[in-house]
């Protein structure tokens, strides 16, 4: 099962309301995405914590419905 | 995760300074992300241990729980979880990976 771009964006947005999110469907198959997420809530956190915040926003879909999502996080 | 899996993961991390939990082996990676990290470590001539999570379903699921991280590959340096593919790739590109290796006194090609 794949996920569409909008679903991913909505889930991240819900958890990180101030986030600016850029998502690309890398292969056009609904399975391989890359997301750049910029948010104030990342400030003072390690990269691991920042990525975990994004993973958590996806509510367990990462690694299941969502096969591959390359993440890049940026502080504002 | 059962104790046996947990102990197995812990012993890999304890006995190898640099551990890469990956899909496939360093010589025959079975996933592009695992291959990418494996290649970076090879380029830096780091002596690392590749652990193929595809050999065991309990290991494949267990490592995610162990690190509280949902994806594979995963890199451990001197017992510390450093990151998955995206973070390690970023660290490789911006020089932080070399710095981390240096700080942790791991031999690599400078």
Quick summary of this structure?
By secondary structure, chain A is an alpha+beta fold. Chain A has helices at 5-15, 47-57; strands at 20-25, 32-38, 68-74. Chain A has one domain: BolA-like (GMP Synthetase, Chain A, domain 3, 2-Layer Sandwich).
Structure, explained:
- The complex is a heterodimer of chains A (76) and B (110).
- Chain A is 29% helix and 26% strand.
- The mean pLDDT of chain A is 92.
- In chain A, strands 1-2-3 form a 3-stranded mixed sheet.
- With 76 residues, chain A is an alpha+beta fold.
- Chain A has a single domain (5-74), classed as GMP Synthetase, Chain A, domain 3 (2-Layer Sandwich), CATH 3.30.300.
- Chain B has 110 residues and is α+β, with helices and mostly antiparallel strands.
- Chain B has a single domain, classed as Glutaredoxin (3-Layer(aba) Sandwich).
- Chain B is 49% helix and 16% strand.
- Chain B is built from 5 helices and 4 strands, in the order H-E-H-E-H-E-E-H-H.
- Chain B has a 4-stranded mixed sheet with strand order 2-1-3-4.
- In chain B, helix 1 crosses helix 3 and helix 2 runs parallel beside helix 4 (85-94).
- Chain B starts with a helix and ends in a 7-residue tail after the last helix.
- The mean pLDDT of chain B is 97.
- The A-B interface holds A 47-48, 51-52, 55, 60, 62-63, 68, 70-72 and B 33, 64, 68-71, 81, 83-87, 90.
